[in-house]
Design a protein that fits this description.
7-stranded antiparallel sheet, 1 helix, 6-stranded antiparallel sheet, Jelly Rolls
């Protein structure tokens, strides 16, 4: 039986009888990540970089070709945040009353035709963490409609933060190879939480693609 905890925040699987557990199948339900085998070791040239320092207000992103969309037409999106001179894009479901809250932050098209061994990286910071609800995706056919595009999940490392406080430390996603892709690609950061529910606050910064 699948239920939730007292605070209606976390899922709990209840097993009435151990004899009903069957481990005969070897298949797991892990995400199906995009896996490219490009060379990660060479010195790279910069193909795309965004640290949001030149963003004066959140809506400036759309003028630069970014998509910042709440799938369920709620009010909450990724928002510009400044702290100690650094600018990031921040999102949280806390106190929004939106459940579910699914928001996508998508780059403009990034062309990979004139490069090889491309590597993506970005940084995240989690605060007031009550569950990991941020993922990274890539698409080659996104055209304004998120739900109609083909998205492949990236095996990115996402920050895990404290549950009751705010921190300044960012976590690097790791080096994510995009070498098996070509043409225009779109990188997306997806937030899927809710209030009440899992509402971790995330800051996103320094989205970068390099290549040979």
């Amino acid at each position: 039986m699948l239920t939730k905890d007292y605070y209606n925040e976390k899922f709990i699987l209840v097993i009435n009888d151990p004899s009903t557990i069957n481990f005969s199948e070897s298949d797991r339900c892990d995400p199906d990540f995009l896996f490219c085998t490009g060379n990660l070791n060479n010195e790279k040239e910069l193909i795309f970089f965004e640290n949001f320092q030149e963003i004066n207000k959140t809506n400036d992103l759309e003028d630069l070709g970014w998509t910042n969309e709440n799938i369920y037409l709620g009010n909450e999106k990724f928002n510009k945040r400044s702290s100690q001179g650094n600018v990031s894009m921040q999102i949280s479901a806390y106190n929004t009353g939106e459940n579910p809250m699914e928001v996508w932050l998508i780059t403009p098209p990034i062309n990979l035709d004139n490069s090889s061994n491309e590597i993506l990286s970005f940084e995240t910071k989690a605060t007031y963490d009550n569950g990991t609800i941020l993922t990274a995706w890539v698409s080659s056919d996104f055209n304004d409609n998120i739900t109609e595009a083909t998205w492949q999940q990236l095996d990115a490392k996402v920050s895990v933060g404290p549950g009751n406080s705010y921190v300044n430390n960012y976590t690097l996603s790791g080096e994510l190879s995009l070498d098996c892709l070509e043409g225009d690609v779109f990188i997306a950061i997806k937030y899927l939480g809710g209030d009440p529910g899992v509402s971790t606050t995330y800051d996103i910064d320094n989205i970068k693609i390099t290549g040979d």
